[in-house]
Every structure is written in structure tokens, then in C-alpha cells.
């Protein structure tokens, strides 16, 4: 969802409704799946920041990058924020849109 003055209060409202409902059901013993939607990994954050840096350097919006790659704008946003475990295929599509090559090196730790 696009973040603007209209959307933010709605997101907060529905998040509050969700959390309240979830807590009431948990107290009754209902089990919920763990939230796996947010990935917190240093490598994902580093890659995301680099993608954002290059995108801005090229003067592209997330929507324009989405159109060039066929990847949804929402996924690009999550990748740039480091909240998505990016696949190699997705990384390849993004690098192609940037006219860049991806290089992966394994080095001794």
C-alpha cells in the first residue's frame, strides 16, 4: 500500500484491530503461526541498501524498476528495506535492469 497521509491512519487502525483480535484468541488457547514475513539478516540489508543506492543513482523509481524487471514494486520495497530474502534469479533480473553484473565470492572467514 502506498504510504501517504490517507493510508497511514488506516494501516495503524487495522494493525491495532489485528493485534487485539490475535491477543484475545491467544488467551483462549488458539495457536497462530509465527510471523515470518520480516527477515532480519545483515546480508539482506546490505544487498537491499546497495540495490536502493544503484536505483537512485540511475534515477529510477521503484515503480520504474518494477516495470523493467517484472518484479512487483512491493517486493522491490521489501528487498531494499532488507526484509526479503532475495533469490539469485531476482537479483539477476535487477542487475540486468541496472546493466550491471553480479559477482559472488567465497572467502575464508
Global shape: extended
The sequence of SSEs as H and E is HHHHH
Q: How far apart, in Å, are the first and last alpha carbons?
A: 40 Å
Structural class, please?
Answer: mainly alpha
| Tally of distinct domains | 2
Structural commentary:
This protein is mainly α. The chain has two domains: 1-28; 42-97, 434 Repressor (Amino-terminal Domain), CATH 1.10.260. The chain has helices at 7-27, 42-57, 62-69, 73-80, 88-97.
Strand-helix topology:
Blueprint: H1 7-27, H2 42-57, H3 62-69, H4 73-80, H5 88-97
Give a quick set of tags describing it.
109 residues, mainly alpha, 434 Repressor (Amino-terminal Domain)
Put the structure in a nutshell.
The chain has about 110 residues and is mostly helical.
